Amino acid sequence: MRALSRMFAVLVLVLVASACVTIHIYFPAAAAEEAARTIVRDVLEAPDAPTPDEPDAAPEPTSRGITPLIMPAVAWGLERLVAPASAQSPDLRVESPAINRLRTSMRSRSAELAPYLRSGAVGFGRDGFVEARDLSDVPLQERARVQRMVSEENADRRALYREIARANDRPDWEDQIRETFARVWVEEAPSGYWYQDRNGAWRQK
Q: Parallel, antiparallel, or unpaired for β 130-132 and 194-196?
């Protein structure tokens, strides 16, 4: 009887704990940065960084010391406790027809924009978009085309940030996704590209 009482006591504690858990969904900053870096490198056609080796798998937990009779009940309780947290995966979904179309559109424009990003006519803004920085050295007949490319690029970027947030059912993440991309665009920009620092000053890599 004493053993049976202990078994029920453990079960009750597990169930109470599972009922009291509150799951908070945080913005997956590391996953967002990894996703942004992959997309930016694809758009700029930069080489991918080597993939780190997979960490060794953690050893499976042992049931030593726990009465076999209460294992099913404890496992059920732990499953109820852990399942909601596991459902909030730290990964960020960046695959959808809309996202793929935007990536293709931006990649097709990248080579055409590159000379203007190197000359300083156009630069990567600190807000995750591109800006027509100084068109004074751009021939007059090309300026309208450059401004059109800037407008189209920004439309694609704005839609990309929105679609990534939408693909993850978290439209409230759009600003954080844009901020992540803003930093990664500059970090992955090739040497010679112009960009805006945090204080709004223009610099060349």
A: unpaired
Alpha-carbon distance of 158 to 143, in angstroms, equals 22
> Rounded to the nearest 10 degrees, what angle do helices 140-167 and 174-188 cross at?
130
Residue 48 has pLDDT above 60, yes or no: no
Amino acid at 174: E
pTM of the model: 0.69
- Distance between CA 9 and CA 73 in Å, rounded? 11
Q: Which of 161, 166, 165, 132 is nearest to 149 (CA)?
A: 132
pLDDT score for 76:
47
Backbone dihedral region for residue 149 (phi beyond 0: left; psi -120 to 50: alpha; all else: beta):
alpha
Q: Exposed (0-12), middle (13-18) or buried (19+): which is 199, by Cβ within 10 Å?
A: exposed
Q: What sign does the dihedral 30-35-41-44 (CA atoms) show?
A: negative
CB 108 within 8 A of CB 149: no
**Cβ-based neighbours of 13, under 8 Å, separated by 6 or more:** none
Query: What does the DSSP assignment read for 42-110?
Result: HHHTPPPPPPPPPPPPPPPPP-TTS-GGGHHHHHHHHHHHHHHHHHS-S------HHHHHHHHHHHHHH
